[in-house]
Amino acid sequence: MPLSNRVLNRTLLARQHLLERSTLSTARMCDHLVGLQAQDVPPPFIGLWSRTADFDPATVSSALDDRSLVRITLMRGTIHLVTPADAVRIAPLIQPELEKVPQRKGFNYGAMVGLDFDELRAHGEQVLGDEPMPVADLRAEAARRYPDRDPGVVVQTWLYQLPVLQTPPRGRWRDNSRPVWSRVQPWLGIPLDPDYPVAELILRYLRAFGPATTMDMQTWSRLPAMKKAVADLGERVRTYTDDRGRTLYDAADLELADPDLPAPVRLLGWYDNALLSHQDRARVVPEPEVTPPRAAGTLVSPVLVDGFVAGLYKVFVNSGVARLRISPTRNWTKDEAAQVESEAAALLAFLESESEGRVEILAPGADLRP
Asked: How many CB atoms within 10 Å of residue 367?
């Protein structure tokens, strides 16, 4: 019997710890989720708050300081908050794919065309040695070495070519400082591990995001040869079929969730991996029943009601007042609206404890801009 979309939804939410807040430590949660996407500072804190009972944001800040967590470019070429063990074993898998990016003719409108990329990498290794380096200093060196090129694009190329991570202060609670970059090994004091099997990474993906198709795996990782990785897992995976006849793979020792499990309201951060890690997002993002709302700028975040995205929200802070504005993407019942308001008030108190908090639930499809 094919797996229904609701089974996939509840299974994903259970494995993401979005049905019930977990008592896992911050490091263990990052390990289980294979990192939290973190190119902006607030989202991993929101993701951890939504998944962890009594979450203390200081656990992230102190872990970045003592290097028991790091912010590093990994899956999909985006910054993830991960453990050091994952940093040194996943980076070598991802690095070959990252290095292809600046060599594409369309990269920054051809800004790197004509350069010797081996020479460019050698310069990057000289510039970014054993000590962390602010972006401004990297740009200055890029301008000195390549005066006829855009220094920002040269720096971007170096950051693709070299296994690097972001060091504090950026990434601490409420600290949106400019990035300071370091080579991985000097910062962590341990070498990269080039022998971590892709199959093991994919098995961990299934434990946090499965069941999934090979295209889902590729969407999440941006790695090739997913069919081989699944084959290498052998009897450690089992197969299902979804309601469109596609083959889904899952860890053989895991069970599916009961589709009738209640799913509490959850407010996630922008770029949350629960929404970005499948080619087909229908298990969590249904077709909107109304026109999606507009918002000032970006950083619009999802509201899950009954397990599915049913609204978007954005926080605006001005003159000591924090307003969390929510625009539903479908009509809500009075009970759903009350649950959303309660969860939103709790999140706003977490994010903006020093401001007066106001939750504003708008009409479906309403403009989020104040």
From this structure: 13
